[in-house]
Amino acid sequence: MAEPLLSVRGLRKSFGGVHAVDGVDFDLAAGELLALIGPNGAGKSTTFNMVGGQLRADAGTIRLAGRELAGLPPRAIWRLGVGRTFQIAQTFASLTVAENVQMALLSQDRKIYGLWWRAAGHRRADALQLLAQVDMQALGDAPCSALAYGDVKRLELAIALAHRPRLLLMDEPTAGMSPAERHALMQLTRRLVSEQGTAVLFTEHSMDVVFAHADRVLVLARGRLIAQGTPAQVRADPLVQQVYLGSGAMLAPAAAQGGRVDG
Ligand SMILES: Nc1ncnc2c1ncn2[C@@H]1O[C@H](COP(=O)(O)OP(=O)(O)OP(=O)(O)O)[C@@H](O)[C@H]1O
Q: What is the pLDDT along the chain (263 residues), one digit of tens a residue?
């Protein structure tokens, strides 16, 4: 693997007596799509939130291009080049599509974030260019509240890309989407990260998305990394099969075409 962009070592977090994340190590290279999977309660969100700074790690290091992120607040981590999309879309329904992107650009430029009306004239051309990257240039003047769900997710991606992150964290990016929409969004993500060399860490319950689009997969169970490798390696791993068989989910290629695994 090329020199990692993100390097995580000995990451731990407990809640009371629960070892939610119990000594996790992994690397992520620029341009790589890395999936973080595991049954419910495995520690995916906790890991994710420690990388993004929403949760403070009890122990361990999280280095982005050699810079320590552990202990920094989310805003500082964002400034260092870590973008994020959320499971529940974080857009302003009362603004137009273009204004939502302009708000992100305002924030990036350290202008006053709360004054949404200032967004209307701010870097509109740049906003439209970002929308073009996610094939939404025709929807710039549409109210955000009128968008179809798949379009909201694409808009979120444009917003996350507005400050050109080196690492993009995507929390269940395809939740609630139809199979066709899921693959379209991940293909778009792949195209954008290839063009820009962004690294992506994503949590995902839909195995079809993981096996079709991830370069590598990390499998967590009870806070520990039980396997990592290519989708084919992970799918063939007996321990992974055991963990998922307990949930009734199938990891065989045929079943992976449409399977959502809920833990
Ligand atoms: N704020 C919290 N307080 C107490 N316990 C927590 C908290 N957050 C997570 N946990 C516990 O830590 C463990 C890991 O939870 P986490 O949400 O990271 O798992 P997950 O893999 O993201 O699960 P899911 O797929 O259900 O979202 C679980 O046992 C959970 O109950």
A: 567 999 999 999 999 999 999 999 999 999 999 999 999 999 999 999 999 999 999 999 999 999 999 999 998 999 899 998 866 666 777 888 998 888 888 777 665 555 555 556 678 888 999 999 888 989 999 998 888 888 888 898 898 888 889 999 999 888 888 888 889 899 999 998 888 899 999 998 888 899 999 999 999 999 999 999 999 999 999 999 888 765 545 454 444 344 444 43
> Among the three residues 163, 193, 213, which one is the final residue of a domain in this structure?
163
Decide if 182 is inside a domain. yes
Is 252 close to ligand 1, i.e. is its CB under 6 Å away? no
Domain of residue 61 covers 1-81+166-205
What global pTM score does this model have?
A: 0.87
Number of domains in the chain: 3
Identify which of 44, 47, 244 to mutate to test ligand 1's pocket (most ligand atoms within 8 A of the CB). Answer: 44
Q: What is the ipTM of this complex?
A: 0.97
134, 158 Cβ separation under 8 angstroms: yes
* Most ligand 1 atoms within 8 A of CB, residue of 11, 12, 13, 15 to mutate: 15
140 and 194, same domain (yes or no):
no
- What CA–CA distance (Å, rounded) separates 243 from 249? 9
DSSP bridge pairs for 225: 220
In degrees, to the nearest 5, what angle opens at C-alpha 70 toward C-alphas 66 and 73? Answer: 115
Would 211 be classed as within a structural domain? Answer: no
